[in-house]
Specification:
Helix content: 40-55%
Strand content: 5-15%
Structural class: alpha+beta
Oligomer: single chain
InterPro entries: PLD-like_dom (IPR025202), PLD_domain (IPR051406), PLipase_D/transphosphatidylase (IPR001736)
Largest sheet: 8 strands, mixed
Pfam family, one: PLDc_2
Family: Belongs to the phospholipase D family. MitoPLD/Zucchini subfamily.
Order of helices and strands: HEHEHEHEEEHEHEHH
Distance between the termini: 170 Å
GO cellular component, one term: mitochondrion
Keywords: Hydrolase, Lipid degradation, Lipid metabolism
């Protein structure tokens, strides 16, 4: 929060075409004390270039670094501007180009010391000032300067110096021309052979012998690999010592026979037979008669007992009479 309060941000928008705003941009550049880092697609505005060269002469400590698209070196007028910057700013100015023929280096911004940046659609050309509809923001902000400067350093690390890139481009052009020449020669040879075949063809022979096309020479067969040395035979393992025979087990004594079990008595099941009703009545009658007979027997026993008592009484009387007589 304290850093944000200390970072006093000011923004001034510039719109083009406008000669007046071109002068504002030149005055903005004049604030540089240590370095100016420019990252633009096209750089041909002579008024801006003149101001930069003047600043380098007045301040030998000032360093100017420029990144632009490599297509600019293929246009003589644009390459002349870049050459002028390098020649008059020896030891102070450096220029790098992107390495791609497919993509563009299409950034448009500059960084001045640690305080100022300018960014927008504005290309550093004469037409951007006089005819094109462009915009440019002049910004004072340490935080934004840091972010843009990190992007510039990343590109500077990846890209190549202009002279090295030009040499590389020239070599690429030479290689391309050589490939085209070889292709044209091959096509010419094929056309000449075809014309020769047509000229030598027999009109009476509907199937002329066609010249076999040249075939690529076959590669020489590879030399056979020397046979591998046979591995020495493995030493046979010593035979295992036979195991000592086990002692025979002693026979177990025969078991004593168990005594035979006594046979269980056979239980006879007596089935109760249901008696008929009449038989049951006769049995009841027999029982009643038995009871009566028993009562009669009992009466006879009682009578006998009475008789026996009477006999005892008579015997006692007899014995008493004998005693009296003896006296």
């Amino acid at each position: 929060m304290e850093e944000e309060k200390l970072d006093q941000v000011t923004i001034e928008p510039l719109f083009f075409p406008s000669k007046e705003n071109e002068q504002k941009l030149i005055q903005f550049l004049s604030q540089a004390k240590r370095y100016i880092r420019i990252c633009v697609y096209t750089f041909t505005n002579k008024n801006i270039v003149g101001k930069m060269l003047q600043m380098m002469k007045e301040n030998p400590e000032l360093k100017i670094q420029v990144i632009t698209d490599d297509a600019q070196t293929k246009i003589p007028s644009q390459k002349a501007i870049l050459d002028q910057i390098l020649e008059e700013g020896k030891g102070q100015a450096e220029i790098k180009l992107d390495n791609s023929t497919v993509s563009l280096m299409h950034n448009k911004y500059l960084v001045i010391d640690t305080d100022y940046i300018a960014t927008g659609s504005f290309n550093w050309t004469k037409s951007a000032v006089t005819t094109n509809k462009e915009n440019l923001l002049l910004i004072k902000s340490k935080k934004l300067v840091q972010q843009f400067d990190e992007n510039f350093q990343s590109l500077w690390k990846d890209f190549k110096f202009m002279n090295d890139r030009i040499i590389e481009q020239q070599q690429q052009e030479i290689d391309k021309a050589e490939r085209q020449r070889l292709k044209a020669e091959k096509q010419a040879e094929q056309a000449a052979k075809k014309a020769e075949q047509e000229a030598n063809a027999d009109p009476n022979n509907p199937n002329p012998i066609q010249v076999e096309p040249e075939t690529k020479p076959k590669k020489a067969p590879k030399e056979p690999k020397p046979p591998k040395e046979p591995k020495p035979p493995k030493e046979p393992k010593p035979p295992k010592e036979p195991k000592a025979p086990r002692a025979p087990k002693e026979p177990k004594p025969p078991k004593e026979p168990k005594p035979p079990k006594e046979p269980k008595p056979i239980k006879q099941k007596i089935k109760k037979v249901a008696q008929p009703k009449k038989k049951k009545e006769s049995q009841e009658n027999e029982k009643l008669s038995d009871d009566v007979e028993q009562l009669d027997v009992q009466d006879d026993i009682e009578d006998e007992e009475d008789d026996f008592v009477d006999e005892e009484d008579s015997m006692e009387d007899f014995l008493a009479d004998d005693d009296s007589e003896c006296d």
